[in-house]
Amino acid sequence: MMRAAAALLALAGLAWIAATLVQGNEGETHVNKQIERDAPVEAFVGIDQEGARDLLGVALREETFTMSPGVPEFRIELRNIFDADQTPDIREVTWARSSEENLTLWFAQNDGVWRAVHGMSWHPGAEF
Questions:
Q1: Do 93 and 78 meet the contact criterion of CB atoms below 8 Å apart?
Q2: What is the distance between the alpha carbons of residues 6 and 32, in angstroms, rounded to a whole number?
Q3: Which one of 22, 24, 38, 119 has the lowest number of neighbouring Cβ atoms within 10 Å?
Q4: How far from chain centre, in Å, is Cα 117?
Q5: Which of the 8 DSSP states describes residue 106?
Q6: Res 3: pLDDT
Q7: How far is residue 103's CA from residue 105's CA, in Å, rounded to a whole number?
Q8: Facing residues of 95 across strands?
Q9: Is the pTM value of this prediction over 0.70?
Q10: Are 81 and 119 in contact (CB under 8 A)?
Q11: How far is CA 115 from CA 50, 91, 102, in A?
Q12: Closest by CA position to 48, among listed 95, 5, 111
C-alpha cells in the first residue's frame, strides 16, 4: 500500500525523498528510499534492485559478474568500494534515462537483498 502511494506521488511529479517500509521476498522488512527517476546518480545508492526497476522501468542491459582484480575501465570505480581481495557477485544494470543519458547501477547482495552500491551516468555514445 505504501509503495503504491509513493508511486502515485512520484508520478504526480512531486519532488521528494522519503523512507518507506518495504516487505521483502523472505518476509524481512527493510527501508527503501523513494526517489525521482531523474534524481542525481548518488541518490540511487542504497536502493534495492526491485525498487530501481519499479522507478526506471525495463533495463537496456543486465549482467552479473564476479569482481576480480582486473576490471575494465567502465567498472574501475568499483575498486573504490571493494578491496582487491574481495570478490563479491555484482549485478550491473543499465537504463536509458533519455536519448542523451544512460544510467548504470551496480548492485551487491547484502542479507539477501541486491542494493545499489555505485552508479554512473554516461552518454550513450561514450566508449570505454
A1: no
A2: 11
A3: 38
A4: 7
A5: E
A6: 41
A7: 7
A8: 103
A9: yes
A10: no
A11: 9, 9, 19
A12: 111
Statement: residue 72 has pLDDT above 80: yes
Order of strands across the sheet that contains 113-122: 61-66, 89-98, 101-110, 113-122
SS3 73: helix
Q: How far apart are CA 71 and CA 57, in angstroms?
A: 27
59 within 8 A of 95, measured Cβ to Cβ: yes
What grid cell was written down for 64?
552479473
89: helix, strand or coil: strand
Set of cell numbers at residue 97? 534515462
Enter the DSSP assignment of 69.
S
Other CB atoms within a 10 A radius of the CB of residue 78 amount to: 19
